[in-house]
Amino acid sequence: MDKNFQEEFTQITRFKPPLYKQRHQFVKDLVEKYKPKKVADLGCADCSLLRMLKFCSCIEVLAGLDICANVMKEKMHTLSPLPVDYLQPSERSLTVTLHHGSVAHKDPCMLGFDLVTCIELIEHLEEPELKKFPEVVFGFMAPSIVVISTPNSEFNPLLPGVMLYRHPDHKFEWNQAQFQSWALETARCYDYSVEFTGVGHPPTGMEKAGFCTQIAVFIRKYPQTGEPLQSEKPTEAVYKTVFKAVYPSLKDEKYLQNAVISEVIFTAQIIKHRLMSKHEEYGNDPERKFKFQPSMDCFSDYLGKLVVENNMEPFVSGNEVYVPLATIFSFPKVNRLCGTFEKLCKLIAGKVTLSSDGSAVVFNIEHE
Amino acid sequence: MTGRARARGRPPRQAPALLGVGDAPQQPQQPQQQPQQKPQQLQQVHVPPPQSEEPGGHGRLRGFESVLPEKRPEGLQVSSGLQDLSLRDRGGRRRDFHDLGVNTRQAMVHVQESKTGFSGRMVKLTTNHFRLTSRPQWALYQYHVGYSPEMEARRLRSALLFQHEEHIGKTHAFDGSILFLPKKLENKVTELFSRTRNGEDVKITVTLTNELPPTSPTCLQFYNIIFRRLLKMLNLQQIGRNYYNPSDPVSIPNHRLMVWLGFTSSILQYEDNIMLCADVSHKVLRGETVLDTMHSLHSQVGEERFRDTCAKELIGLIVLTRYNNRTYRIDDIDWDNSPKGTFRKSDGSEISFVEYYRKQYNIEISDWMQPVLISQMKRKRGNIQGSVALIPELCSLTGLTDKMRNDFNMMKDLAIHTRLPPEQRQREIGRLLNYIQKDDNVQKELRNWGLSFDYKSVSFTGRVVQGEKIFQSGNMFDYNPQFADWTKETRGVPLIRAVPVDSWLLIYTRRNYDVANTLLQSLFRVTPSMGIRMNKPSMIEVDDRTEAYLRVLQQRVTPETNIVFCILSSSRKDKYDAIKKYLCTDCPIPSQCVLARTLSKPQTIMTVATKIALQMNCKMGGELWSVEIPLKQVMIVGIDCYHDTVSGKQSIAGFVASLNQTVTRWFSRCVVQSRGQELVDGIKACLQTALRNWSKWNKCLPSRIFVYRDGVGDGQLNTLVNYEVPQFLDCLKSIGTDYSPRLTVIVVKKRVGARFFAEIGGGLKNPPPGTVVDTVVTRPEWYDFFIVSQTVKNGCVAPTHYNVIYDTSQLKPDHVQRLTYKLCHMYYNWSGIIRVPAPCQYAHKLAFLVGQSIHREPNLMLSDRLYYL
């Protein structure tokens, strides 16, 4: 089901950017507009749309469903977190799941979504599947928004080499009237509003043919159904999960703790260096002094202000340097990560060497 | 301990070898159906890296039309090349890392029967190799797939073929024209019919072209790809060539480092079996972006030196990006560009980096003033020589900088996590195999291909050859084999050849006056017992400026000066470089630079002074100790390379050849070559002068020549065998028609995946120095062996691999092994056994000094001394 590819192969001369990109962009714009948290792509094929959507920062749950497990598996690893996602965990959480199953079947894992996209999907459905499709998507899943795209058969004469359908697997291709009446009927039946648009403009003079790809955007008219209502629809899980990736996120205590510890020690060390270089200035090593010469960065200014205002000065005692936690906490990055001072203390407890009263980070400088 | 101690420069990735596995004899001619490549349009320089997932997104943005015939998916792929067949995984770069198909043993008659040695005592060894047990008569079936009418696009070809999975099966690998299957189809030729979406009927002809036995190079590469696919299935992350486990990182917040544990794996045909060699690998990653690093550099060095420092620190490092799963090498920093700069997209439109990343990845670049990093695309196929631009804010650094390597505390903290002792290392490898064994999907994949592993590592016996006797001025010493060191034993014993220090300069800054005096007193105390006669030096005080040092050198060095001694107050490289450059080229005098700090500790000053005295003696042409070399009229050559990553992009080959019977004096030269130049031409000249010098010293030409060639990258063996060795022979021929010495060329490799563990007292220990392995884990097509010559205090000892690629010596393997081990005793900067034969280490030292500090060939007046130590 290599639909993106095959279409672009002949239409490349016609559409710029290629039509599949325009469809993806359409979905992306929709996501930007409505900021859904949970998005499902039905008929996700090689996951190219999901791959694009994972960069949308509003999305926290991303699911894909396809009838063919192999086509999903081929590239599903590109949906895994990148090394950098582990190195710098993001604020938002993100879970990407791929299911193997049919849109003619109900599975509870598809409940609670804000946006469901069916891009170039329905024309691949056999008659019985197509019949069940509205009930599954609009009746059962019942997301706030549904996007459905499908080829517009009126455009086919304008495409070179298209005999009957644009793809051998297409079971039908509708004209604008057919699609719209199906969509309007579905919307009426499940209490959605629907608007029609498309991508791939017809050439001048042929406007009547309509868009190459016709798109319907359905918006649910009734408010969000609460949890109880969903549990009224008990169904057994019929989809098979073929892939699941949980992205590292600062919402996860483990990653948050690592990030905080790393930031605390790093900040404390910068403060320590400043302090030590101040001491060293009286020393006799010209090179060292040069090395730590305060530069024009805002850091030293900031530190200076802090020390003056709040009397949270780091100090040296014997072989140890004390950097007050309060000073560290006042740094924006640490502050943003922890939120409260109590949280900071809790997160670093036992992981960072503190003074006996727990108010400062301690470094031993004996061996330096 | 002295001023020269610097981190070893990291060589860049070596250029790939010329050939893949094409010379596998059992490959029939492939009907070449590779869709023809259209000329590249829009070869855009400085484009941002594209999404790897997109069509055409293979390292560069290009004209869309031109992309289709060539695009390949990530992951498994099998591709037909021009004459050769090679398999690739990620990156699609044609490389033969394991030098498969280079069969050098067949040309050496005397090792056809056996290449094993016999001396020494037996030791029971375990290794990190695991036997591959495939089905009986397991074979891989290779099919050619043809389309009628001809289909151009690879993906279309795949789509059409895979409509027939009921015929070809679910387990397959297809690159567009070659199909690999684990089972044989019913007929030799199968015809299938598909229909395109245009309703066009296509006949697909699947023809059996080859049955690959499990040992064929293609099959082996195929195993490797499948194994890597398994690692991916285990949710390990690929970084560079290896796979790492991201879910359980070790973080070292003190240095903002993170260490990921991972695995290197390779499946190869070894002596009797195909085996998986698995080793633990650690990836050091940094929890900060390149931009963060730039900021902290700025605050450390200030505006003035900022750009230079950035270049020095960052160029050559590998970065990861926030938006794709690729690694890039930083080749340059474009300070005139910024995220506001624009580039031309494949469709011809201009877009700024800011806009591009916003649109493509929803990433907001916050600092619009940062420079842009440049990474060269190394792909040579299709004449692509573009580069990509990277935004520092979106890149994370991997690995260590030279500065970090020099940071003792950091390396100490790292070593705790990365230097695993034998038992622990073996446990970690066991964990990987356990994952593989436990994972259902992985097991299924293995079953589909009919592969299985022994989950117990291979055990066998190795030999520990006897320790060498150290000779020094009529005295003979044994050393404790456990430490492989004879510092204590030889202390206070006269050297073989002590060069008197009659006239020398001692240069220091005012602050180091006391240090200079302490050093002098210590030297006077330690030198007499060594037999070194030392006069008082000219003590010269200088300002702590480079020019001041140079002026003193210009004014005070005379033809009588034996050596110049400089006490440096800091490890600033420019001063050291300037001094070395002047004294190695313009005014060829041996020199010794020492950091004042090294001399400042009273408790160690005597040890330090001893080592300095020895080093000075070597630099002036002295000799310290020797081992017994039974061969007569032998010249031993060592070659190593240094690749300058920062300035000049030069490569330097160090060439060192012995001059005397006892192999205690060396002739040293180097070849400085710019990028793209062939190394071997220079080496030929070196060999000629070395022979001339040898004959001057010995009044005849050597009858045997041993070349130890270090600095050979993975996949370069073929070039070496087919190009470099013939040049050596040519060179020898050119000396005279009646001159035909016996030549042995041995490739020395320090970075190997094999690890050996001695089973001692029920536990696993590092094997003792002198352990030789020449069975089981060596390669049948090579005359190769491993020697563990050095000892390590912590972690696992790495064996050195020796591959004799050319040998007319007629010596028994045992003798070649013994000679090699003997030469590991002859490095005068370390009174112990080292990891490689001394000439290789000398060559490395020389190349490193030239590459780091001098940048041109040193004066040949110095060539008979170890002035670079």
TrEMBL record, chain A:
It catalyses: small RNA 3'-end nucleotide + S-adenosyl-L-methionine = small RNA 3'-end 2'-O-methylnucleotide + S-adenosyl-L-homocysteine + H(+). Keywords: Magnesium, Metal-binding, Methyltransferase, RNA-binding, RNA-mediated gene silencing, S-adenosyl-L-methionine, Transferase. SUPFAM superfamilies: S-adenosyl-L-methionine-dependent methyltransferases. Its EC number is 2.1.1.386. One of its GO terms (biological process) is piRNA processing. One of its GO terms (molecular function) is metal ion binding. This is Small RNA 2'-O-methyltransferase. Belongs to the methyltransferase superfamily. HEN1 family. It comes from Myiagra hebetior. Its cofactor is Mg(2+). GO terms for cellular component: cytoplasm; nucleus. It is an enzyme of class 2 (transferase).
Automatic annotation (TrEMBL), chain B:
Residues 563-855 form the Piwi domain. GO terms for molecular function: endonuclease activity; hydrolase activity; metal ion binding; piRNA binding. InterPro entries: ArgoL1 (IPR014811), PAZ_dom (IPR003100), PAZ_dom_sf (IPR036085), Piwi (IPR003165), RNaseH-like_sf (IPR012337), RNaseH_sf (IPR036397). It comes from the Eukaryota. Its main location: cytoplasm. Residues 25-46 have a biased composition (Low complexity). Keywords: Cytoplasm, Developmental protein, Differentiation, Endonuclease, Hydrolase, Magnesium, Meiosis, Metal-binding, Methylation, Nuclease, RNA-binding, RNA-mediated gene silencing, Translation regulation. GO terms for biological process: germ cell development; meiotic cell cycle; regulation of translation; regulatory ncRNA-mediated gene silencing. GO terms for cellular component: cytoplasm. Gene3D superfamilies: 3.40.50.2300, paz domain, Ribonuclease H-like superfamily/Ribonuclease H. Residues 1-11 have a biased composition (Basic residues). Residues 1-93 are annotated as: Disordered. SUPFAM superfamilies: PAZ domain, Ribonuclease H-like. The keyword Endoplasmic reticulum does not apply. The keyword Iron-sulfur does not apply. Residues 289-399 form the PAZ domain. Its cofactor is Mg(2+). Pfam families: ArgoL1, PAZ, Piwi, Piwi_N. It is found in: Cytoplasm. Belongs to the argonaute family. Piwi subfamily. This is Piwi-like protein 1. It comes from Myiagra hebetior.
